[in-house]
Amino acid sequence: MMSHNHHDHGHHHGHQHGHHHGHTQGHTTNSPAFIIAISLNLVFVVTEVAAGLYSNSMALLADAGHNLADVLTLILAWGASNLAARAPTARYTYGFKSSSILAALANAALLWVALGAILLETLRHLFTPAPVAGMMMMAVAAAGIVVNGLSAMLFARGQKDDLNLRAAFQHLLADAAVSAGVVAAGALVLWTGWRMVDPVTSLIITAIIGMGSWSLLRDSLRLGLLAVPDAIDEGDVRAFLTGQAGVAALHDLHIWPMSTTETALTAHLAMPDGAPGDGFLHDLAAELQMKFGIHHATIQIESGDGGACKLHPDAVV
């Protein structure tokens, strides 16, 4: 975990390099839950498309498009979960943890493609509304509430500790709520006979999906650009490290997501009075995990003021 050697950053005085894994290496893929949820949603998508075409309901087709995106989302999340569980290799020294970030980016892109297609068709029906089978809308959308509700329950337990499962859980619950909106639209069509209810409901569904997928796109882009995770305040981490006994200065602080669930940190600590032992680095890494949720901390100790390091000051990357 610690070595006394020379570092290739250009400073040639002795230093200690501390590295710590604070997280467990085992990853659960939740394959049974994914398989059941994907199967349920695939059957429902086929049923909803057929019913939407038969009943001429854009609200049903819009919901089917969203549910198809959900199937792809679940498949990508499942694939990323399996990849993240793989051990590191000589080429992929962090393993495939960041595949979950790539999956999030892909899911956001898929949602926006589906949104565009749904919006174009909805606008066409808005200007030329067609007769809609309200009872069919209600029956199929009610089935959607059951399918999405059951699928969400599969991830209810794991979503408390895993961000990917939490995203799937919340997404499926939102879908159940959207299906409830389609049921209400079908009831309005039956009650009022107003054809515009269907495309207007479709627009509302599209807007809801758009708002949710925008935050997904924004957050996944931030992760892809290695931004400090939202749950961590860089200033607090900096204050914590500089507040350690014997630390005169800090530079080359980096905090970035290794995946959608794990965070890494590297930092150089200048300790002119002498480098501490292994215990200091072990305790520091443990506190970084406990206080900030940083699982993978690598700390370099420099015996001078840090000015000789090529990575000093912080503006140098």
Describe the fold and architecture.
There is one protein chain. This protein is an alpha+beta fold and 317 residues long. The chain is built from eight helices and five strands. α8 links the parallel β4 and β5. It is elongated and about 80 Å long. The protein starts with a strand and ends in a 15-residue tail after the last strand. The N terminus is likely disordered.
List keywords for this structure.
disordered N terminus; 58% helix; alpha+beta; 8 helices; 5 strands; single chain; elongated; 5-stranded mixed β-sheet; 317 residues
Mean pLDDT comes to 78
What is the strand tally?
A: 5
Rg calculated over all Cα atoms? 26 Å
Which structural class do you get from the secondary structure elements?
A: alpha+beta
Helix percent band = 55-70%
Q: Could you give a short account of the major beta sheet? A: 5 strands, mixed
Main sheet: strand order: 1-2-5-4-3
Distance between the termini: 24 Å
Poorly predicted ranges:
1-16, 20-26
Please summarize what this structure is:
With 317 residues, this protein is α+β, with helices and mostly antiparallel strands. It has helices spanning 31-55, 58-84, 99-127, 134-154, 163-192, 197-224, 234-242, 278-292, and strands at 4-5, 15-21, 249-257, 263-270, 296-302.
Give me the secondary-structure topology.
Blueprint (H helix, E strand, L loop, with lengths): L3 E2 L9 E7 L9 H25 L2 H27 L14 H29 L6 H21 L8 H30 L4 H28 L9 H9 L6 E9 L5 E8 L7 H15 L3 E7 L15
Parallel strand pairs: 4-5
Antiparallel strand pairs: 1-2, 2-5, 3-4
Helix pairs in contact: 1-2, 1-4, 2-3, 2-5, 2-6, 3-6, 4-5, 5-6
